Amino acid sequence: MIRKIVVTIVCIATTGIFAQEGTVSPYSFFGIGDLRTAGTVENQMMGGIAVYADSIHINLRNPAAYAQLGLDVWDNKGLVVYTAGISNKQFRFRDFTSEERSAVTNLDYLSLGFSLGNKLGMGFGITPYTAVGYNFRDEQPNSEQPLTNVFNGEGGLNRVYYSVGYEIIKNVSIGATINYNFGILESERLQQIEDVQFGSFDRKKSNINGFDFNYAVNYTPAITDKYTLHTSVRVNTQRNLVSKNERRIGSFSVATGGSIEEINVDLEGQNLKNTEFKIPTTTTLGLGFGENRKWFVGGEYSFQALSAFENPFLGVQNIVYKDASSFAFGGFITPNSGSFSSYLNRVTYRAGLRLDKTGMVVSDVDINNFGITFGVGLPLGRSLSNLNLGFELGKRGTTRANLVEESYFKINIGLSLNDRWFQKRKIN
Questions:
Q1: Can you give the C-alpha Rg of the chain in angstroms?
Q2: Which of 221-230, 303-312, 392-401 is predicted with the least confidence, judged by mean pLDDT?
Q3: Which helix (H) or strand (E) holds 8?
Q4: What is the mean pLDDT of residues 64-83?
Q5: In 3D, which of 32, 95, 36, 30 has the Cα closest to residue 320?
Q6: pLDDT: is 312 or 417 the higher one?
Q7: What is the pLDDT of residue 313?
Q8: Cα–chain-centroid distance for residue 332?
Q9: How far apart (Å, rounded) are the C-alpha atoms in residues 386 and 379?
Q10: What number is the average pLDDT over the span 375-389?
């Protein structure tokens, strides 16, 4: 049965990821696109916090948490966790004059985690990192010759990762993740002048790759026999990404859309053929308190010196970057994980909220994001596996300065399946 469930969710997720773009947000026009949520459904539904680590779930954002895998399961031996997640996100875009709606369905992550014994764990997988998907018009009807620009973009970056975590001394765990980021970003600008039969286009393509590292330290001392303090420090190092670029310009027929003339721009002479851009280090501090597998509350603060970011090849106007930060709060409660008489008592209930200052300043307006999250973890039979359902309501941007306010409703479905990856056979 579990294998059938895994095959079903992977098929649904794969169909979704190839059928649609990762985002339809106009704000993916900036930088390297929208940053995709890095955590599992369990983390996302607690406002995205990752300070909490337990023995039966993978924590994608906190590599030190791998040290906890399997510690109180099956005599601390041979736990393997398979986890996958998909999401559907409904958008509403609004400005002063109009409103539009759209939606995307995506694969969020595919991951494996193992307990190796002796308080050592590891994991690997693949997850989207950024997504680009926009289509909008900029009309200037009051100019001497009415001008229309149409902007289109698609693509994004994915990442494969390998993580390891180890408890070096009692209550202190360390971990590290190596990420390889790769993908293609494409953009196009079409320019048309009213009553002119030809328009111009400017098409750019970047093939991007590069590594970054994530380090974490968790300190989880017992306060009493029942309660535990959870603290963490995580550092996602500066991402040094290399971009191989192409650019084509030309003209097209407004009536047919066909190209009239096309030229490959000599980027070598502009030192833009191969460029490097740096995404600054992000540091996250986490603090929480709770009773193991019963309840937990916590919060995190992240900060990033994003003002140092630039990508000379994109050359996007009307945006500047300043330092970014994020506040997140969340928690869970499981009434009685060992209950035999009530299934609802074994369900885990999660909720949280977050406020992100993205660091993007468009037309002198700060672009911020606010979200409220909630969801449930549904046990699958009497096993340690569970099906996780999550929901998020949020808003990003504003209608000020002719910008777009983006409201969204996100539905998450995740599986966390537990088994033994090695079991010594016994002969009677």
A1: 24
A2: 303-312
A3: helix 2-19
A4: 82
A5: 30
A6: 417
A7: 81
A8: 21
A9: 4
A10: 91
What residues does 329 pair with on adjacent strands?
A: 299, 353
DSSP 8-state code for residue 42:
H
Terminal-to-terminal C-alpha distance of the chain? 29
CA angle, corner 284, sides to 305 and 372, nearest 5?
100
pLDDT band of residue 235 (cuts 50, 70, 90) is very high
Identify whether the C-beta of residue 87 lies closer than 8 Å to the C-beta of residue 412: yes
Q: What single-letter DSSP state applies at residue 271? A: T
Rounded to 5 degrees, φ, ψ at 259 are: -70, 140
Q: 193 Cβ partners below 8 Å, 6+ apart?
A: 145, 146, 147, 148, 199
At CA 300, angle to CA 282 and CA 328, rounded to 5? Answer: 105
Rounded Cα gap, residues 339 and 301, in angstroms? 35
| Distance of alpha carbon 42 from alpha carbon 348, whole angstroms | 10
CA of 14: how far to CAs of 123, 191, 245, 302, 351, in Å? 21, 35, 28, 32, 28
- Which of 406, 421, 395, 388 is closest to 109 using CA atoms? 388
With 0-12 CB in 10 A as exposed, 13-18 as middle and 19+ as buried, what is 189? Answer: middle
Minimum mean pLDDT range among 140-154, 196-210, 296-310, 335-349: 140-154
CA torsion 21→22→27→28, rounded to 10°?
-80
Spell out the domains of the chain, with CATH numbers in brackets.
Answer: 2-420 (2.40.160.60)
* Buried-state track 321-333, b at ≥16 Cβ within 10 A, e below 16: beebebebbbbbe
Tokens of 402: 């002719």
Query: What is the SS3 assignment for 63?
Result: helix
